[in-house]
Amino acid sequence: QVQLVESGGGLVQAGGSLRLSCAASGRTSTAYAMGWIRQAPGKEREFVAAVSWSGGTTSHANSVKGRFTISRDNAKNTMYLQMNSLKPEDTAIYYCAAHYGYYGSTTPDEYNYWGQGTQVTVSS
Questions:
Q1: pLDDT per residue over 67-89, tens digit each?
Q2: Are strands 10-13 and 118-123 parallel, antiparallel or unpaired?
Q3: DSSP 13-41
């Protein structure tokens, strides 16, 4: 199993930036892909971004493309989400998630392991 802990959320004004981190522990020697999923109040979970085991392949939701960048550092067992040009509609709880396999899924239900979530609030 993989345990995940997010950090880096907070309150920021529209147009600002934040960087989220997700530290992984447990069975990290087996290839696992990672992703960020968010959920706003009263809304369904939404895929944000995913990264492959090597970090060489990434995917981003259209709503964040060009503003958010996902990456990972396997030497540190850590994944990141750099969020720039934040908008009020980015306000949500952001979850770090993982599943065994090489390429990251864009479907939240395919992730087996989840962090506790970190709140991101963007004020207008």
A1: 999 999 999 999 999 999 999 99
A2: parallel
A3: ETT--EEEEEEEEES-SS-EEEEEEEE-T
